[in-house]
Amino acid sequence: MTIFSKIKNLIPLFLLIFHVYLLYIPELKGNYVWHHILLFGIELTIPLYLYFGKTSSQNYVSKRAVVLLAGIFVFIQISTLHTAKHVLKQFPEHVSLSDVVPQVDTMATRFLNHQYPYHPIVFGEATSQWTMHPTYMPMQWLPYSLPVYFHLDIRWFALLLFCLSIGIVFWKLRNQITLNTTLLFLCLPLLLYLIVWNKEAVKTVEAGIVALYILIPVFIWKKQYLLTGILITLCLLSRFTIIYWVPFYLLVLFFKNKKLSVIQFLIMTLGLLALYIIPFLWQHPSIFREAMHHHSTATVGEWSLYNEYGLPYNVFSGQGLAFLFFKLNGVSLEHRIFLLQVTQFALCTFALGLMLVYYIKRKSTTTFNLERFLIASFMVYLVLFYNFIQIPYQYLFLVPAGVLISGSICLMLPQQKQ
C-alpha cells in the first residue's frame, strides 16, 4: 500500500475528529460565520468522499485486537459515566436551565398516572407562570416512564441508552473490523464523552434519540431490513426529521424487493397508529396543530433573543446555516424563517431526487451496492435537513454527528456481496 493510499484512508478519520471538535469547542466570540460553513462542508464531504472514494480494505484486525478495542470501549464509557455523576449535579433538572427534561418528566409522569400526556403544561412560579403545549412525540418521553417510575434522573437513562446502542454497533460489526475502521469505532465513545461535557447537551435527553439513529446504518449494512423498519418507525415516533427520506428509502427498496418494502411500510404505519395516532392524536386531533403553532412561535422567539453582539444566540452559537437567512435585509423576520423552511424542503427533496436518478441509472451495474447507497443517502439527507433547521440548538446536531460516525464505519468496511 502506498503512502498516498494510507493517507487517503485516514482522511475520513481526521475529518470526523475535527468535526466533533468544531461541534463542541467553547463558544466563539463574535464571528461565527466560518465555523458554521466549515462544519457544513465537512459533514457533506464525509459521506460523499466515502461513497465515491475507494477507502475500504481487507486488512481485518485479529481477535485479540477486537477484544482490546472492546476493553477500551468499556473503559471510556465507564469513566465517562463516572464523570457524568458530577457533571449532572451541576445542571439540575430545572426549567430555568432548559424545558426539555421538565417537559419529558411531566409527560412521563402523566402517563404513569393514567392522565393524558398532551394537555398544556404550566411552568414557573405563581408570580411568573407560562403555558407550554407539549410538542414531543411518544419516543421522546415514553421510554423515560421507567426512570420516572423509579424516581431517577432521566438523563442517566438517555446516557445508558446511548452506551447500549454503541455496544450494539460494536457487537454487530465485531467480525468486520479493519485497520482503517479501528479508530473510527473509538469516535462513538468519544461522542459520549462530549455529550457529558457539553453544557447544552447535558441539559437534555438527546443521547437517547442519537441511540436510535446511529443503529440505522448498521442494520442496513447487515441487511437486517425488518429491524431497520422498526428502527425507522421509532425514529419517526421521536421526531419527523426523516419524513422526506422514508418515502425515498421505501421506493428504492421497492425496486429491489417489493415484498420487503411493503412489509416495512406496514410496520411503520402500524407503529404510528399504535403508539401515536390511536392512543393520543385520536383523542385530541388538535395536539399536532398546536405543537406546530408552538414551534413557529418558539422560532420567532429564538430569532428575537439577542446575545451581547446583537445576534440571536441560538441561531449563531449552534450550528447550521440559519444565520444566512437572518442576515437577509429588507425582509421581515417571519418571511426570513419561511424562506429557510422552503429552502430546507427544496434542498432535501432535490438531493433525494438526484440520488433516485443516480440509483435508477446505476442499480443494474455489477459495482453497485444497495446498502452503501442507502447509508450514504441517509447521511447526506441528515446533513442537509439539520443544517437548515429553524432553531439550530447545539444539542440537536448530536444526531447527524452520531450517524456520520456509524455510517462512516460501515462505508469503510469491505464491500459485501449482493
What does this structure look like?
It is a single chain. This protein is mainly α and 418 residues long. The chain has one domain (3-411). It is 67% helix and 2% strand. It has helices at residues 3-24, 33-52, 63-90, 100-112, 138-141, 145-149, 154-173, 182-197, 206-213, 215-221, 225-236, 245-256, 258-281, 286-303, 313-316, 322-326, 333-362, 370-387, 398-411, and strands spanning 121-125, 128-132. A two-stranded antiparallel sheet has the order 1-2. α11 packs parallel to α13 (258-281). The model is unreliable at 26-30 (pLDDT under 50).
Radius of gyration: 21 Å
Strand content: under 5%
How many domains make up the 3D coordinates?
Answer: 1
The helix content, as a percent range, equals 55-70%
Number of strands: 2
What class do helices, strands and sheet pairing give? Answer: mainly alpha
- Shape designation: globular
**Which stretches are low in confidence, meaning pLDDT under 50 for 5 or more residues running?**
26-30
Q: Largest sheet, if any?
A: 2 strands, antiparallel
Separation, N- and C-terminal Cα atoms: 27 Å
Give, in spatial order, the strands making up the sheet with the most strands. Answer: 1-2
Query: Number of DSSP helices?
Result: 19
Series of H and E elements? HHHHEEHHHHHHHHHHHHHHH
Provide the residue-averaged pLDDT: 87
Give a short overview:
This protein is mainly alpha-helical and 418 residues long. 67% of the residues lie in helices and 2% in strands. The chain is globular.
